[in-house]
Amino acid sequence: MGRMLAIAGYPLNHKFGFLGKNDAPSALLGQIFSGNKGIDDLVDFADVITYESENTDVEIVKQISKKTTVYPSAKSLFITQHRGREKTLFKQLGIPCVPYKMVSSQQDLIKAVSEIGLPAILKTATEGYDGKGQFLLHNKSQIGAAWKSMNGALSILESFIDFKRELSLIAVRDTDNNHKYYPLVENTHHNGILRLTIAPAPAISPKVQKTAERYMQTLLDEMKHIGVLTIELFETENGLIANEMAPRVHNSGHWSINSANTSQFENHIRAISNMPLGDTSATNNFSAMINIIGEIGNIDAVLKMPNAHLHLYDKTERTGRKLGHINITANSKQEIDDSIKQLQEFLPNDD
Ligand code: AMP
User: What is the best residue among 163, 165, 243, 351 to mutate for testing ligand 1's pocket, by most ligand atoms within 8 Å of CB?
Assistant: First the structure.
């Protein structure tokens, strides 16, 4: 994410420094700060600091906020890094969310299962991503194993939602309280990991888009969020249900690099550096993003497709690791479907 933010920010005449290692994907894109003095040196270097993960230490963000500007603020980070706090805020703002119970012991889990019912998903309250730290419970005999898999961490039991599809909304708010929203997109996950995004999501009524934007606006304003914020939603028979938020650019927004007037990365950089926000409209009505996961694969085939755009992150291959993505631009739904078929080797084959 840091790499893509910097790539988007250079044409705006910004300079970048990174807290990280010399072999990080963002290395060579700017100055790398590491070691004991890394944070202090970064604070001296930067006019504004941002972060690419909700697992960033809130205390560190609070500390460095005393010396330099950090966007999004520690408040946004504090709420969005904890599934319980997120859902408390959803409820407080009247945003429909998944029925849930916080769980901190096996006894709690037994009680929560009897209240929530099954099937249900047990998730760690913090630090989980890409489906990690989750256990799907079908019957009560799994309670012991489910609790054990949480390793004693504070957890949340959520009702299993029978959704029609998964959507996400990405928005950006600047320091002058301007808001901009990208179109809702449709996301397909496999084993908890995003594999495919269709942008904009097909057959979204203006009413559903407006509803999602209304939820988002209340969240942006309540947290006084500066920068990009993402909300993941389930589309159900009874409307939209919020799953979780991320205080950052999001994998489901990568399509915007090739198919929006301003990418999510550029708009995040604009927002945190007091520049006017860019237009978030899709430049074409049909685009898609396929994640490259685990191994790079036959990228020559991708490069030969006139409507495919390759984005690699300079990461070494490892099972389950996001190594890059392919953006597809198209003139019709048929062209999207045909291109996805052509790129089938990058998608899971056991669906
Ligand atoms: P999360 O880390 O919460 O985004 O979960 C990863 C994926 O697991 C989601 O994108 C869904 O595909 C699935 N999932 C998570 N929570 C639920 C739920 N309460 N009901 C049904 N599926 C879920």
Answer: 243
pLDDT tens per residue, range 75-111: 999 999 999 999 999 999 999 999 999 999 999 999 9
The set of residues, in sequence order, having a beta carbon less than 8 Å from that of 71 and lying 6+ positions away, is: 48, 49, 50, 226, 227, 271, 272
Ligand 1 centroid to residue 102 C-alpha, Å? 16
pLDDT at 351 over 60: no
Query: Residue 149 pairs with which residues in a beta bridge?
Result: none
Residue 149 and residue 269 share a domain: no
145 and 170 share one domain = no
Residue 308 and residue 176 in one domain:
yes
Inter-residue contact 179 to 243 (CB < 8 Å) = no
Preceding peptide of 206 cis, ω within 30°: no
Which amino acid, 116? I
CA of 26 to the centre of ligand 1 (A): 30
Most informative mutation of 121, 123, 232 for ligand 1 (most atoms within 8 A of CB): 121
Ligand 1 nearest-atom number relative to CA 98? 19
Token pair belonging to 297? 């694969």
